[in-house]
Design brief:
single chain; mainly alpha; 2 domains; elongated
Length: about 110
Amino acid sequence: MSLDQIDALFEKAVEDGYKEPLKYFEGTLEKRESYKAGAQKRAQKYQQTDFTLLPYSQLEHIRMPEAAQERVRRIVLTIMRTMNGPNPVIVGISMLDSSTNSKRSAMS
């Protein structure tokens, strides 16, 4: 980054209403570092957590990729159960019961 680019950033910050642009940029960097530290702290806290065992009410407040994956998994299972009944495999097989086969043979 050149000095001209830095100067342009400071001028833009002043135009945007920041009287002390250096403090603004320092604060922005501190927020970024704080965000990174928070993500690392969450990762350590939930490192040994089995998300499949947590209730959804607790799972929905955890900002981790693994927790998001578990939420999506549960949502997909709920949709599948709603669309296909409690056991999609058995329901799918039961659709080919004897009444369906007798209707097919009557059509032939």
